[in-house]
């Protein structure tokens, strides 16, 4: 079983960040597939990138990330304040 | 366009009755099956490896959530690897969680499947409804493809897609 909270993509993320500025010129809005600190390709959808990743690396961790200037922060208020609680 | 109406009935001594109580307390929930993405299932099939059985539970439609989530234990049991990290607002500020590809199927709604959903792995399974765990939150990324009507007085919601 996976260690769910572990960041198994730390190296790939570091590689992404170090190249992001350059990639914004050519891949802005696209999804890049990265494995072992190597850019495998860019794709118009994350589904395409995932298919390629699975085809090439099986079910091993690989990074798929959209090339954007600013990363969006997810907001899940129900989790933040713990209001999901059902007992009927 | 397909339309799905879900009436959440109140159990009483006189049988099930229309009431706004259940929807108010439980929220708009529907049965969900969480499984591995099709691309991974095809790969495993080609390699004659077993495909993990889908995990079943409830999904809660959460209009407050920007992104859909799947319980991290559920996704872990399916053996799916994360594809990236996402920043999320938490009670202690912004923190990071893993993002997992998943396949979501809703048995009560024919033809409504999400083959590839990039879902945030979070701990939600402690929550229960009718003795089944809530294992997914459907956020506005899914609702972006649907019409969602919350009928409070009738205790019913409608999902059209």
| Helix fraction of chain B by DSSP (H/I, runs of at least 4) | 10-25%
Oligomer: heterodimer
Number of strands of chain B: 13
Order of neighbouring strands in the sheet with most strands of chain B: 4-5-11-6-9-8
Largest interface, counted by CB within 8 Å of the partner chain's CB? A-B, 40 and 54 residues
Poorly predicted sequence stretches spanning 5 or more consecutive residues of chain B: none
The CATH architecture of the domain at 29-139 in chain B would be Beta Barrel
Radius of gyration of chain A: 16 Å
Describe the 3D structure.
The complex is a heterodimer of chains A (88) and B (161). Chain A has helices at residues 10-26, 46-57, 77-80; strands at 31-35, 38-43, 63-66, 73-74. The model of chain A has no long low-confidence stretch (mean pLDDT 87). In chain A, 38% of the residues lie in helices and 19% in strands. The longest helix of chain A has 17 residues, at 10-26. In chain A, strands 2-1-3 form a 3-stranded antiparallel beta sheet, sandwiched between helices. The termini of chain A are far apart. Chain A has a domain at 10-68. Chain A has 88 residues and is an alpha+beta fold. In chain A, a hairpin with a 2-residue loop joins strand 1 and strand 2 (38-43). Chain A is built from 3 helices and 4 strands; from the N terminus they run H-E-E-H-E-E-H. Chain B starts with a strand and ends with a strand. In chain B, a hairpin with a 2-residue loop joins strand 10 (128-129) and strand 11 (132-138). A 6-stranded mixed β-barrel of chain B has the order 4-5-11-6-9-8. In chain B, strands 1-13-12 form a 3-stranded antiparallel beta sheet, with no helix packed on it. The model of chain B has no long low-confidence stretch (mean pLDDT 91). With 161 residues, chain B is of the alpha+beta class. Chain B has a domain at 29-139: Beta Barrel (Cathepsin D, subunit A, domain 1). Chain B is 16% helix and 48% strand. Chain B has helices at residues 21-26, 38-46, 72-77, 140-143, and strands at 3-7, 10-12, 15-17, 29-35, 55-61, 69-71, 84-90, 93-105, 113-122, 128-129, 132-138, 147-151, 156-160. At the A-B interface, helix 2, strand 3, strand 4 and helix 3 of A face helix 1, helix 2, helix 3, strand 7 and strand 8 of B. Strand 4 of chain A pairs parallel with strand 7 of chain B, so a sheet runs across the interface.
């Amino acid at each position: 079983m996976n260690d769910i909270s572990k960041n198994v993509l730390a190296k790939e993320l570091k590689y992404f960040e170090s190249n992001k500025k350059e990639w914004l010129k050519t891949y802005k809005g696209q999804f890049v597939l990265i494995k072992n600190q190597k850019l495998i390709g860019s794709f118009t959808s994350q589904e395409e990138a995932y298919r390629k990743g699975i085809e090439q690396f099986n079910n091993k961790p690989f990074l798929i990330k959209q090339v954007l200037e600013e990363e969006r922060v997810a907001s899940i208020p129900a989790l933040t304040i713990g209001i999901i609680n059902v007992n009927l | 366009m397909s339309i799905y109406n879900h009436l959440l009935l109140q159990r009483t001594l006189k049988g099930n009755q229309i009431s706004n109580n259940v929807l108010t307390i439980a929220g708009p929930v529907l049965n969900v099956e969480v499984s591995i993405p099709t691309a991974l299932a095809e790969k495993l099939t080609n390699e004659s490896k077993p495909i993990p059985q889908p995990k079943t539970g409830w999904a809660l439609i959460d209009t407050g959530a920007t992104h859909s989530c799947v319980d991290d234990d559920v996704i872990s049991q399916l053996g799916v690897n994360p594809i990236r990290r996402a920043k999320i607002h938490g009670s202690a500020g912004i923190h990071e969680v893993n993002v997992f590809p998943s396949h979501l199927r809703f048995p009560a709604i024919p033809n409504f499947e999400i083959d590839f959903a990039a879902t945030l792995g979070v701990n939600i399974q402690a929550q229960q409804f009718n003795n089944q765990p809530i294992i997914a939150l459907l956020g506005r990324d899914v609702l972006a493809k649907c019409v969602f009507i919350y009928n409070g007085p009738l205790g019913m919601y409608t999902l059209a897609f």
